[in-house]
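Suppose you are handed a protein chain with no further information: no name, no annotation, nothing but its sequence. What can you learn? This example shows the usual starting point.
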Amino acid sequence: MSTILAAGARAPAFKLHVTPDQLLSLDELLGKRIVIAFYPADWSPVCGDQMALYNQVLPEFRSRGADVIGISVDGAWCHQAFAQARNLHFPLLADFEPKGEVARAYGAYRTSEGVCDRALFVIDEKGTIAWSYCSPIAVNPGVDGVLDALDAMPKIGE
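A reasonable first move is to predict its three-dimensional structure. Written in structure tokens, the prediction is:
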């Protein structure tokens, strides 16, 4: 497993493809809480289950003032097909070229395999990492840690 960025660190900026012709940056997301889920590959069984779970509990994230994004080294076309097949309602960003550049910045890249680690980050409204966790690659980390981290943050506006 990687040594990922810890709570208190500034979240590295990024600008990645969310569709083949549309980019999304961290700067555009500032002002709200963001859950970033790095994951190895769109079509792997564990990743599919993880993203489907986050989709299912999206209302819970949003009730805590947070949006979710997934990031992997798969390309935007692959993400588009995967999101459509799984009926996902949050963006998947392509850390495709240069491969894994954003994952590397977060300490969540597996060089030996050329994929992202299964790493989670909760980013506060100002762009600071409030919580991070790296799961074993074959284990779906679930949502409890993320929800607990969001619940431990000061109420929005405090």
